[in-house]
Design a protein that fits this description.
The protein contains 17 helices and six strands. The chain is α/β, with parallel strands linked by helices. The protein has a single domain, classed as Rossmann fold (3-Layer(aba) Sandwich). Strand 1 and strand 2 form a beta hairpin. Bound molecules: adenosine-3'-5'-diphosphate.
Length: 303
């Protein structure tokens, strides 16, 4: 894996700030969306408006806990396979996180730059569209996302915890969590999934056939790899392989971030009432939409 010292440094710094932040003070709202004060600032958001994207930037867009670290790893391995150069993380890769000077520093970084983001479609800087950067959007079923999000808060020692799963579930359904509502994020992206330069990939599909998913990602970004290279990356990108190296790649948060990596862990926490509530919300927002169909709610979320 690439030298992630800057990546880990940023994570450690964020954990340090989180330790001193109570849950009641964790969020600030910017243009209607709650963000964690430990990772985002309004100065950085203002600076982001002037961020200059490149046509060969690799944008990875996802709601939190949909598998962004998985895709980041796959894409950096693809870059390594074609260029033989380790993808060096010169900054924490989430575009909207960090200090407001980061976009100045990023001007010096060689192409291709990987820009991960949890921003809703309408909050992305316009230059991404103007300069036609390719955007891979990663989705995961909302029940496993909620459970993964809850565990992230409650398992990582320094991140503010919720009193209970039920309390987290209520906030998640209201969109009062970092980066706002899963459902707002989903309807916002749903309208753009067939746009030029946009491709959707599902966590569950990747889990069911990793090599096929990696091939699709490689094709989308125009990386030409042999079947053998795809198989090698696939073996290095399983949950077990990534979990084994998580301390090395992600520092203290690693073992908590690579927690279980399964489809259907929601069954361990959702009550029947919560399942019904989630289904109603899913129907309200996503019934009849292209994303709604592609998420395969019946397969992944029905008891
Ligand atoms: P769980 O908490 O359900 O285990 P993100 O990177 O967007 O924060 O998402 C984290 C989730 O992706 C975690 O889910 C994590 O285990 C899962 N994940 C990370 N790498 C994975 C892999 N190689 N295979 C399957 N799941 C993976």
């Amino acid at each position: 894996m690439a030298d992630k010292s800057k990546f880990i440094e940023y994570i450690d710094e964020t954990l340090g700030k989180s330790k001193e932040t109570a849950l009641s003070h964790l969020f600030f709202t910017y243009q209607g969306i709650p963000y964690p004060v430990t990772m985002c600032t309004s100065e950085t958001f203002q600076a982001l408006d002037n961020f200059e994207a490149r046509s060969d930037d690799i944008v990875l867009a996802s709601y939190p806990k949909c598998g962004s670290n998985w895709i980041l790893h796959i894409v950096s391995e693809l870059i390594f396979a074609v260029s033989k150069k380790k993808y060096d993380y010169p900054e924490f890769p989430v575009l909207e996180c960090g200090d407001s000077e980061k976009y100045q520093r990023m001007k010096q970084f060689p192409s291709p730059r990987i820009l991960a983001t949890h921003l809703h479609y309408d909050k992305l800087p316009g230059s991404i569209f103007k300069n036609k950067a390719k955007i891979l959007v990663i989705f995961r079923n909302p029940k496993d996302v909620a459970v993964s999000f809850f565990h992230f808060h409650n398992d990582v020692p320094n991140i503010p915890s919720y009193g209970s799963w039920d309390e987290f579930f209520r906030q998640f359904m209201k969109g009062q969590v970092s980066w706002g509502s899963y459902f707002d994020f989903a309807i916002n992206w749903n309208m753009h999934l067939d746009d030029e330069n946009v491709k959707l990939i599902l966590y569950e599909d990747l889990k069911e056939n990793l090599a096929a998913g990696i091939k699709q990602i490689a094709d989308f970004f125009g990386f030409s790899l042999t079947g053998e290279q795809i198989q090698t990356i696939s073996a290095q990108s399983t949950f077990q392989a990534m979990q084994a190296k998580s301390q090395e790649t992600h520092g203290a948060v690693g073992p908590f971030l690579f927690r279980k990596g399964e489809i259907g862990d929601w069954k361990n926490l959702f009550s029947e009432t919560q399942s019904r509530e989630m289904e109603e919300k899913f129907k309200e927002y996503l019934a009849g939409t292209s994303l709604g169909a592609r998420l395969k709610y019946e397969s992944h979320c029905q008891p």
